[in-house]
Amino acid sequence: MVAKLNTEEEIAKMRVAGKLAASVLDMIGAHVRPGVSTEALDEICHNFIVDELDCTPAPLNYSSTPGQTPFPKSICTSVNHVVCHGIPAAKKILKSGDSLNIDVTVIKDGYHGDTSKMFFVGKPSVLCERLVRITQECLYKGIEAVRAGARLGDIGYAIQTYAERNHFSVVREFCGHGIGRVFHDEPQVVHYGRPNTLITLEEGMSFTIEPMINAGKRHVKILPDRWTVVTKDHKLSAQWEHTLLVTTDGCEVLTRRSDEPFG
Ligand code: MF3
Ligand code: CO
Ligand code: CO
User: What pLDDT score does 263 carry?
Assistant: First the structure.
């Protein structure tokens, strides 16, 4: 079944969860600087989520399938060629020139808000800055394709054409997802594809769009820790994520931050 919010009450709870998830990304920016470990960032986010927001960090001890090693931390921190699901670690010290994705998912009152953004540590290379910008624009192109009556394939098509026109590649193995009471629900929102294919979007559906875009080839591998996803060619990767609610004429970006344009 596809994640669908049927009542104003459910929608209101998703709005709250989305806003709170976004507030974690707003808060953590000031702490991202050379010399800080990704574990320190995890601890700051964890305490903020639990103590200030009165939420649960969804990644902590999460496993998508029974028997999978649970994720050991409260946020994902993916540095440079790490595509997604990087595990915060004391030995991972950020240095000037690094790029970092912080992915936050909170649960409030039973509902999930899931969002991520890229941060620069010190000054990025020209390539890194361009990859991060184009990836955010890929997310926004995907968001612009969302409205009741559009098809899921329209989203992937918008993202893939824009990424490839800019000579970057789209990761295929990981995708956006339906979200609500369940963290990772149907549908799978892939970030590539053809227009006019896959399911038709309906008012009240809620899902994430979270393109992972690589500077080199699209291929990835998983490290022995069973979580960390890296590019096979060790070239840079970037990702941005929002949680959305489909409306008749577009969508509501439930995890919108104050620095973003759309309403
Ligand atoms: N927040 C990630 C997503 O966008 C999922 C992280 S699952 C974890 O779907 F276990 F790795 F944290
Ligand atoms: Co997600
Ligand atoms: Co996420």
Answer: 56
C-alpha distances (whole Å) from 99 to each of 81, 94, 155, 202, 257 are 9, 9, 26, 36, 20
User: What does the block give as tokens for 28?
Assistant: 């953590």
Q: How far is the CA of 211 from the centre of ligand 2 (A)?
A: 10
Question: Which residue has the CA at smallest separation from atom 11 of ligand 1?
Answer: 85
Q: Which two tokens stand for residue 90?
A: 């004391």
Q: What is the pLDDT of residues 14-40, one digit of tens each?
A: 999 999 999 999 999 999 999 999 999
Query: 114 CB less than 6 Å from ligand 1?
Result: yes
CATH 3.90.230.10: does it fit domain 8-253?
yes
Q: Take atom 4 of ligand 1 and give the residue whose Cα is closest.
A: 114
The closest of 206, 212, 210 to 251, measured between CA atoms, is 206
Mind listing the pLDDT tens digit for each residue in 150-182? 999 999 999 999 999 999 999 999 999 999 999
91-146 pLDDT tens trace = 999 999 999 999 999 999 999 999 999 999 999 999 999 999 999 999 999 999 99
pTM: 0.98
Angle subtended by helix axes 126-144 and 152-165, to nearest 10: 160
User: How many CB atoms are located within 10 Å of the residue 101 CB?
Assistant: 28
Starting at the edge strand found earlier in the chain, the sheet holding 237-239 runs 169-170, 212-214, 237-239
**Gap between the Cα atoms of 106 and 87, Å rounded:** 17
Closest Cα to atom 7 of ligand 1: 59
User: What spacing in Å lies between the alpha carbon of 136 and ligand 1's midpoint?
Assistant: 18
d(CA 1, ligand 3 centre) in Å: 20
Report the C-alpha gap between 227 and 66 in whole angstroms: 15
Q: Write down the domain spans for the chain.
A: 8-253
